[in-house]
Amino acid sequence: QSESYLGHPWCRQWFHVHHLNTNSGKMSKSSGEFLTVSLLEEKGYDPLVYRFFCLQSHYRKGLVFSWENLDNAKAAFDKLIARIAALDPADGAVDEAVLVEYKEKFLQQMGNDLNTSMGITAVYDALKAKTNDATRLALIGDFDTVLSLSLLEKADAKRAEAAKAQTT
In what order do the strands lie in the sheet with 25-26? Predict the structure, then answer.
């Protein structure tokens, strides 16, 4: 239906994820329990924190939502952004050999049945890589084109915020 409406191919792959569950069962409109981006924002959550929360689980596994689990994901996401913000973009030139090595690992992990939790692990591996900060940032930026967590943008904003705080 979508392709006939759009007039071009819509997608090549399609998969169905497990339902989002709460401790009391499946989250659904009919049960009165469901999430919207508006609700997340009303409660003070960045929608990217929710994306991060979801990416930490494989799509074939059920995901149990609770505000406590989302708080844990928020804390982990904020720490991740702080670690990325602490990297110095001017620290050396990008090491192409390291870049290729880690990109191949990332593609293998993500190519293993779209294992997004391993994709998140690859970001942490890039942070621990024995290389310079410029290469780490290049890796994270590359991985984030798939993960779509705005990691570099958020880290830049955090760096700018810290610089502004130092000048006042």
Answer: 25-26, 20-22, 63-64
Say whether 125 sits in a helix, a strand or coil.
Answer: helix
Residue type, 100: V
Q: What is the pTM of this model?
A: 0.84
CA distances in angstroms from 75 to 23, 34, 65, 79, 81, listed in the order given? 21, 22, 15, 6, 10
Alpha carbons within 13 A on the beta-carbon side of 101 = 12
| DSSP letters for 17-81 | PPPEEETTEE-BTTTTB---HHHHHHTT--HHHHHHHHHTS-TTS-EE--HHHHHHHHHHHHHHH
Radius of gyration of the chain (CA): 19
- pLDDT given at position 136: 98
3-state secondary structure of 136: helix
